[in-house]
Design brief:
Layout lengths: L2 H32 L5 H20 L27
Helix pairs in contact: 1-2
Length: 86
């Protein structure tokens, strides 16, 4: 994997992580300050956003240069084809 690709993936991960942290803060704030009898309907949009961001995190994983399979974080070998990646 080229250094440029690693840098891009790193920055994408940072951006998603930062946005996810902001959504968690907003969720806590709305729940705490909301005084809802049933908070679920008001908080569902935040739950959906968290799910989307978590899925995006998973999609931002590095890929194997040989078979293009998603690599597990810190992988030394591709779990699909066995190519050395680390």
């Amino acid at each position: 994997m080229a250094d440029e690709e690693k840098t891009e993936i790193f920055h994408l991960k940072e951006e998603v992580e930062e946005e996810l942290n902001q959504v968690y803060l907003e969720l806590g704030k709305q729940y705490y300050e909301g005084g809802f009898e049933d908070p679920l309907p008001q908080l569902l949009p935040l739950f959906d956003r968290i799910t989307r961001l978590k899925n995006q995190q998973a999609d931002n994983r590095a890929t194997c240069p040989n078979c293009k399979a998603k690599l597990e974080p810190g992988a030394v070998f591709c779990g699909s084809c066995g190519t050395k990646v680390g």
